[in-house]
Amino acid sequence: MTTSVWLTTQRGRRHRLEDRGGWGLQCGQQTRPCLAAQAAGSIGVWLMNGTTMTTSVWLTPSVVADTDWKIVGVGDFNADNKPDLVWQHQAAGSIGVWLMNGTSMTTSVWLTPSVVADTDWKIRGPK
Question: At a CB cut-off of 8 Å and minimum separation 6, what does 99 contact?
Fold first, then answer.
């Protein structure tokens, strides 16, 4: 089964995050990186030149132990002009953000509210 989420960049370009039972990719445009998350919990970044991967780098931390946590969005949540990662726990409904410095998480914070009581509600990008 394939599930997809559309994300929109600041320039209004839409990109799809897909889970095809293995790796999910969220790609920027041209030289922006692709964020890759594996079903087993590994997280990495593919540095791109157009549609060609030039380098792959693991995030720090590089693994999420609880694979019910899924990356559901990217945005700048602390106004440092660097992309941060939005996470949602698929079973518990918890929502948090990794504040990032490049490929390293500097701090994790809860959103307010930090839990969606009805876990049928999921964060999704625009379609």
Answer: 77, 78, 80, 84, 105, 106, 107, 108, 109
